[in-house]
Request: fold
Amino acid sequence: MIPKIDSDIGISVYTTKYPGCGGRIRACHDDFRVFEVLSQKTLDSISQEGFAIYKLKKSGIDTNHALEIIFKKFGVRLKALGLKDSSAVTEQFVCSLGQNKSIPNYTDGKISLEKIGFLKKPLSAKDMIGNQFVIKVTDPKQSFSDFAEHDRIFNFYGYQRFGSKRPVTHLIGKALVQRRFGDAITLLLSFTSEHDSEENTKVRKFMSDESHYSEALGMISHKMDLERIALQEMLENKNPQKAFQKLPLSIRRLFVDAYQSFIFNLTLGRAFEYGEELFRPQDGDICYDKNAILGKYGIEQNQQLAIPMVGHSYFKKTRFDTHISKILQDEQVNPKDFFFKEMQEISAEGGFRTASILCTNFSIEKNTVSFTLQRGSFATMVMREIIKPDDPPSSQAFKRFC
Reply:
């Protein structure tokens, strides 16, 4: 049985035969550890001048908010290669966007920033190999030491992409793609989920009535910073498009990305149910090679099947177009809708993503799993296949911290 929250974000299947060990992850921050892995070439290129590169360690705070704290402290914007959520202990690399400018090492209760040198160019996606994970499962119903299907897991976008316990980001993204800016703001402010806290749900229901916006501004918690920005703009100008444009660019792009991710998840599930071969590429397929370079299927080893991501430059000429076209028809969306004349900065071109997860260095010791994933893959999707949770938000223990 697929949990409802999985279906809500487009995940409709399991791909492993393992029955599931049960239990939960993230009972404490230390139970979920993530370490970014840079290429050896990049590490060997670190020098004494150029663009400053730092190691950012954090716990109990997401990447965007950590970088905002640093900006307010030092007035310097730092660039991250990927977003790490708050429910983990994470180590990632960030860099400055100006040459030969650096800031002091910094630490507080949740984050620490340590300069490790300089690079000739700012960090980019090609500098990062992936992420190493060390994850403890609390209270499993049985040992999972015999799990051996880590090479047969779909590369679904995980819960974090959609808001975890409040899966709304893709719904906001769809409203934006369909130019329903008023609905996008309404969803941001008032969409509720059975997995959210009682306090948050109460506030969001109150904000579902526009006449309550002024009063709601004094009710929302400090964690609802995006909602506060939107509320203030709606009160001042009553223009939902302008209210949306007041949000940080990274967040605005995230909403559109989340909707692309939802369509990708649907595509994987429907192709699997249709009987498509998804773990091995075939003649005519588009693939990534061992160097993450995109090209046509050949005889090279270690090629990974790639599936199109819908955007305004969507590539139709694959065996997945039938599935994607049907999904777009059901969603009442056209690829060209992902180009925003109104806000070109959030336009989404599209691209490709591997169908399955490349999971290496996999090991299990007692109740702890260790593995390395390529950039962009979600460890929660590996753990989903191991745990087979009845209630994913509870198994992720989003509200339980030591």
About this structure: The first helix runs from residue 4 to 8. Residues 339 and 401 are 41 Å apart (CA to CA).
